[in-house]
Amino acid sequence: MAIRGAVGNNSVLVNRYCKCIAAEQGDEKRCVDLTLLYAIETSKAAVTRCLLENGADPNGFNDENTPILHCAIRYGEESVGNFSYLQSSGFDLLLRYGADLDIQSKDSKQESALHVAVRWGKLGFIRFLLRYGMDPRSADSEGRPPLFAIFDRSFDYDNHNCLEIISHLVSRGADPNQQDNEGRRALHLAAQKGSRKVMELLIRLGAACDQPDATGKLPLDYARETNDHASIGLLESYISSHTLEH
């Protein structure tokens, strides 16, 4: 492969490639995969295109066994309204050169692209993947559907983007009562994070307050463990009203 021709005069990428050569003991394919990953992470579309034209694998993986396509989702820019990010991004280029949208991570979780898009709050990518036909109920090896990935990061769970993502997933078929391998539901995780607005939204979308996980804990128990009085009050109120109705 004419790798130096592909990277041209970009000294940073040339140095990156040379370091890969040394680290991988001359494994040309692995070096090219890692250089492609670096080009995508640093938003160098022209270099990404050159590498793919010269035979770089669009279905390669990084050192953590995450598909390069998933990395493109994490680092990719997006325009939610018109999908303009598809026109020149690393994500688009990978698709053009044969990337498999259904590719999963090769780590213990075996996550989908939709899990990644949800985790990083990429609503534009989420819409694209669902339009492509990705199942919002598809679980990873731990039984976690993409909806659960919204709780993997530390940020303001009550912000508009988070609520919009949850609403969109459910509108496209996600089940707010789907359980993971430990019997937890999205409401358990929201209670654990102390997110009142997310809990309110999940309940409006049909999440059950009175269903325990595999250890017998209710969402209310998770809220009590965090000593979040607002969450405790909300869940106690819903449980009380539900009991009175029945």
TrEMBL record:
Keywords on record: ANK repeat, Repeat
InterPro entries, per database record: Ankyrin_rpt, Ankyrin_rpt-contain_sf
Each ANK repeat, start to end: 109-141, 182-214
Record-linked Pfam families: Ank_2
Protein name as catalogued: Uncharacterized protein
